[in-house]
UniProtKB/TrEMBL annotation:
The keyword Methyltransferase does not apply. This is ABC transporter substrate-binding protein. Gene3D superfamilies: Periplasmic binding protein-like II. Belongs to the bacterial solute-binding protein 1 family. Keywords: Signal, Transport. One of its GO terms (biological process) is maltose transport. The keyword Nucleotidyltransferase does not apply. InterPro entries: SBP.
Length: 441
């Protein structure tokens, strides 16, 4: 634990020094600018292969518009998520960072704290739809108190209830649930209809899926300060708040009553398990329906492609879904980029209304204004779009949040609860670990 915290602090210090000592005029404390003076120049942009595979036309359109308007060329370097943090750390430390880049919104905080990105606050209003950016996605690109913007929202993803309409209909359920009580009543019918199958899960809920479990906690506690909240530079925990525990217990009861197995595993294999036919519903990202009903060669079951439905995870009242964790990607300009103004201008064009409208055919756009375009692109998008527009939550916006420590602490606590351990005691243990990390600085 101490070695991990020391390493994180050291990285933040080194990155800050690298940013501030750069020969670039756009150090971490400087205000970002937008430049169209690109004649004879080439900028380098790191974009994830998700776009190369899913929406290359959006990238190409942005590149063309940028080149036409600035005279600069664009070198897109496609990246992969595995080991990306290590590659990014190395680039920022060595001074060989690109002029603009994409990163996951859970990665952003440590780089903002380290001074690794240009402060774009002064040009934020030049970005289309910035006043309607999705709440949790926008927050991930801000400093701790939300007064400055260092990263621009790119696109989002949200979790929904993915269910087999054929199995629900066979049990007499022909309309999707809109409240938790309706969900439980529907699951009771589906479970009873398949009682002869001991391996059947009416709703499969892996015990280590902290994204889903904490969403239920947020349903009773609220979405502000989930996991922990900061005041006066000090973090305090919310995992042991009675209302939060009440919500988590709702998740645990669903797990106990409707999920067969899975108490000690995460959600990574739930799509493949559902494809095998013994699961009627899961909570997952909207695109997971495509995986479940996808080719057999990739673990899917094509026979299920046309029987899968998606709705926001029901909440306590109709029209108020259980709050969703809002994941996604951000875009930023490294503080010692060779061409920071051009990098920022590329991001402005890449996220303008035209490009985001085109992106909305494939993913949730970065703003509430264009979510209806995403929902109109395909019937299945309605659920994830509504979830993104509803109340959402995000991890503590701190550079000391650790995937290797804090997420594991949550997984272990929730797995313990799923196996029958006391919720308060289990969450207290996780909270102790998380607060030690968050207050390390």
């Amino acid at each position: 634990m101490k070695r991990k915290i020391a390493a994180a602090a050291a990285l933040a210090t080194v990155l800050s020094v690298a940013a501030c000592s750069s020969s670039s005029t756009s150090g971490s404390s400087s205000q970002g600018t937008l430049s169209t003076d690109g004649k004879g120049k080439t900028i380098t942009v790191w974009i994830m292969q998700d776009a190369q595979k899913g929406w290359p036309g959006v990238v190409n359109a942005a590149v063309k518009q940028f080149q036409d308007e600035t005279g600069a060329k664009v070198n897109i370097e496609w990246q992969n998520w595995p080991n990306y943090s290590t590659k990014l750390d190395t680039a920022l430390l060595s001074g060989n960072a690109p002029d603009a880049l994409e990163l996951g919104n859970t990665q952003t905080a440590k780089y903002i704290a380290a001074g690794s990105f240009v402060d774009l606050t002064s040009v934020k209003d030049k970005f289309d739809n910035s006043s309607s950016w999705l709440d949790s996605l926008a927050a991930s690109g801000e400093n701790g108190d939300g007064t400055k913007t260092y990263a621009i929202p790119y696109y989002a993803g949200s979790r929904v209830l993915i269910y087999r309409k054929d199995l629900f209909a066979a049990a007499g359920v022909t309309t999707p649930p809109t409240t938790l009580d309706e969900l439980k009543a529907d699951l009771d019918k589906v479970k009873a209809k398949n009682a002869s199958n001991p391996n059947f899960s009416a709703l499969y809920l892996p015990g280590m899926d902290w994204y889903t479990a904490l969403s239920f906690g947020a349903g009773d506690y609220g979405t502000s300060g989930i996991i922990a909240k900061s005041s006066g530079g000090k973090w305090s925990g919310t995992l042991t708040d009675p209302n939060f525990i009440k919500g988590v217990q709702t998740w645990a009861d669903l797990q106990k009553n409707y999920s067969v197995g899975g108490q000690t595993v995460n959600e990574n294999n739930q799509d493949a398990l559902m494809a095998k036919g013994n699961i009627a519903a899961i909570v997952g990202n909207g695109w997971e329906a495509g995986t479940v009903g996808g080719p057999a060669a990739t673990g899917g079951n094509p026979a299920l492609a046309n029987v899968l439905g998606e709705v926001p995870v029901p909440g306590t009242a109709a029209g108020t879904p259980t709050p969703a964790f809002l994941g996604g990607s951000d875009l930023a300009v490294p503080s010692h980029a060779a061409n920071p103004g051009l990098g920022a201008e590329f991001l402005r064009i890449f996220t303008n209304t035209a490009q985001q409208t085109a992106l909305a055919k494939f993913a949730i756009p970065n703003n509430k204004t264009l979510v209806p375009a995403y929902e109109a692109a395909a019937p299945a998008n309605k659920a994830t779009g509504d979830a993104a527009l509803g109340k959402t939550w995000f991890i503590p916006n701190s550079p000391y949040w650790s995937q290797a420590s804090d997420e594991v602490a949550l997984q272990n606590a929730l797995s313990a609860i799923a196996t029958g351990k006391d919720a308060t005691a289990s969450l207290t243990t996780a909270q102790t670990t998380i607060l030690a990390d968050l207050n390390a600085g």
